[in-house]
Design a protein that fits this description.
26% of the residues lie in helices and 31% in strands. It is α/β, with parallel strands linked by helices. Strand 11 and strand 12 (169-172) form a beta hairpin. The relative contact order is 0.19. The mean pLDDT is 94.
Length: 196
């Protein structure tokens, strides 16, 4: 099966936690900051963090267009929290100048579950992930307002869509990398293996 080379976009956010979770899931995990590093990976995680800052840094580091090109070309990509926002085709309430990579035909709402002090954990059943619910850590989390016809809804919480997949693109509102449960990272690693 091998250890696919999976990058974590290392501009801002919880990069170390994703690198650890990917390594535990059997991937060859590495940080990605520049276009030449992006060219060397078979899949990419866009971590949680601050989506506006991440968008601006991606533009500053010359990463936005290379990211868009790789995602359009079918590179497997997984976005958590801010990463979900980065993979949306549209943000309901974008900050000034905020851009996305796109890749999933969805509209997301930033900070939909509330501010930092309203963060919470909850058990979430995710379609395709065996072994019972995953523990979802929701920190200033977005939710998905609507999806296109080709988007598969994998999980809902409180009546809102919190996990989706479209082709080789996966996104969750919550942070699985903060729980020690690596099933979602294994799920994504298997997605990368399936297109090798």
């Amino acid at each position: 099966m091998g250890s696919p080379a999976i990058g974590v976009l290392a501009l801002q956010g919880d990069v170390r936690e994703h690198l650890s979770a990917l390594a535990a899931a059997g991937a060859g995990a590495r940080a990605v900051r520049r276009p030449e590093e992006l060219a060397e990976v078979e899949g990419l995680v866009i971590p949680g963090g601050e989506s506006t800052t991440m968008s601006k840094l991606a533009a500053l580091f010359g990463m936005l267009e290379p990211l868009r090109d790789r995602v359009r070309a079918g590179m497997p990509v997984y976005g958590t929290c801010a990463g979900m926002i980065m993979l949306a085709e549209k943000i309901l309430d974008p900050r000034s100048g905020q851009e996305t990579v796109g890749g999933i035909d969805m509209i997301v709402r930033r900070n939909a579950f509330g501010r930092q002090n309203e963060s919470f954990e909850a058990a979430v059943e995710v379609a395709g992930v065996e072994g019972g619910p995953v523990e979802g850590v929701f920190i200033r989390a977005p939710w998905v307002e609507s999806v296109g016809a080709d988007v598969q809804v994998l999980a809902e919480y409180g009546g809102h869509v919190v996990a989706v997949r479209q082709g080789n693109a996966l996104a969750t509102s919550f942070h699985p990398e903060l729980t020690g449960d690596h099933r979602l990272h294994r799920f994504f690693t298997d997605m990368v293996r399936s297109v090798q």
